[in-house]
Amino acid sequence: MQAILALEDGRIFRGQGYGAPSECQGEVVFNTSLTGYQEIATDPSYAGQIVVLTNPQIGNYGTNQADNESAKPYIEGLIVREFSAVSSNWRSEQVTDEYMERYAVPVLAEIDTRALVRHLRTHGVMRGVISTQDSDVESLVRKARNIRKMDGTDLARVVSTKSSYQFDASDDRNQSGDPLLSAALDRPSLHVVAYDFGIKQNILRMLTREGCRVTVVPAETTAADVLELKPDGVFLSNGPGDPEPVDYAVQAIRDMMGRVPVFGICLGHQLCGLALGGKTYKLKFGHHGGNHPVKNHLTGKVEITAHNHNFAVDPDSMNASEVELTHVDLNDNTLEGLRHKTLPLFSVQYHPEAAPGPHDSHYLFRDFRTMMEEWKG
């Protein structure tokens, strides 16, 4: 079937349609990862977005339930150069085309993704519509222009769990027989309350591998309700949208600071920045990919990291007497990590649980465990 992408500035891309024969709309962003398309599709941080993958062939190793980062895809649509109709990996349970159709995700393929990515890098991310229907181009452009902007939009409460639950590692097929989990069970258990702003499954795995018992709570849970659970630490997850409207979480962090150790990733990092009196801003085309170099000022090492964010914390807005800036992106000098100088609180913008590079990025979860032990002891 034929498909079309219409951007809000009037730029049009025509190609072949796969996945669900329908129409979708959202903010169009690009991701430079070479692998992991299923993890990208099921990352709740992509809610409200259409994702362009720069790797030219997508779908060739299929899909399987074990690689999901959440129960379903959260991307609005997918754009690729070549979409494989077959899968050739022993772990595959369903071809990608059928997977996307099953979850009603339209796919646009057979377009020049290099030209589209260059357009987005030049002009910035913009709103767009993918349609596999016989639609008038001008009407699609008008639809794109009427899409609500990501700026000022709180999507964390949209993707968050509606009720609290205990994460059970024994129900996770990826941790069945995991020697790291088995070793962790021999250590004294620590109780972590994890805020779900769009939490990824592998983050929960990393916490349990550090011997943590994890209670996941909705995004709008108050600090008082969290502290009633008597946690040894609080984790702030990744998530979609603009951090500034998530003022309820900022207030909760302020109410918990100094009373319990706090660790944040991605949106959680941005919320920490706001809670500490800083400001956030929107990037021109965001950071999305598994190959971003980040310098760790604490060790002097460069880490190859996975990113998925459109907003960043302004380092100049942070109080230097209270906050240490620990990580910086070497591509554009954006702030990638911070740590409070006296209170047990630290955060990173990138995704250590994704572990795309040769370094041991899981050290941050160990640091969190150590911080909780020191605070408790």
Short structural description:
The chain has 377 residues and is α/β, with parallel strands linked by helices. The chain is 24% helix and 31% strand. The radius of gyration is 20 Å and the shape is globular.
Helices and strands in order, then pairings?
Elements: E1 2-7, E2 12-19, E3 23-31, H1 37-41, E4 49-53, E5 57-58, E6 77-79, E7 82-83, H2 96-102, E8 106-109, H3 113-123, E9 126-131, H4 137-146, H5 156-159, E10 165-166, H6 179-184, E11 190-196, H7 201-209, E12 212-218, H8 223-228, E13 233-236, H9 247-256, E14 262-265, H10 267-275, E15 280-296, E16 302-313, E17 323-329, E18 335-340, E19 345-348, H11 363-376
Helix pairs in contact: 9-10
Key traits:
single chain, 377 residues, alpha/beta, Glucose Oxidase, domain 1, Rossmann fold, 2 domains, ten-stranded mixed β-sheet, seven-stranded mixed beta barrel, 11 helices, 19 strands, globular
Mean pLDDT: 94
Number of structural units classed as domains: 2
The CATH architecture classification of the largest domain is 3-Layer(aba) Sandwich
Radius of gyration: 20 Å
Helix content range: 10-25%
E-strand count: 19
CATH class of the largest domain: Alpha Beta
N-to-C order of helices and strands: EEEHEEEEHEHEHHEHEHEHEHEHEEEEEH
Would you write up a description of this structure?
The chain has 377 residues and is an alpha/beta fold. The protein folds into two domains: 2-146, Carbamoyl-phosphate synthase small subunit, N-terminal domain (Glucose Oxidase, domain 1, 3-Layer(bba) Sandwich), CATH 3.50.30; 156-376, Rossmann fold (3-Layer(aba) Sandwich), CATH 3.40.50.880. It is globular. It has a ten-stranded mixed sheet with strand order 10-12-11-13-14-19-18-17-15-16, with helices on both faces. A seven-stranded mixed beta barrel has the order 1-2-8-6-4-3-9. 49% of the residues are buried. It has helices at 37-41, 96-102, 113-123, 137-146, 156-159, 179-184, 201-209, 223-228, 247-256, 267-275, 363-376, and strands at 2-7, 12-19, 23-31, 49-53, 57-58, 77-79, 82-83, 106-109, 126-131, 165-166, 190-196, 212-218, 233-236, 262-265, 280-296, 302-313, 323-329, 335-340, 345-348.
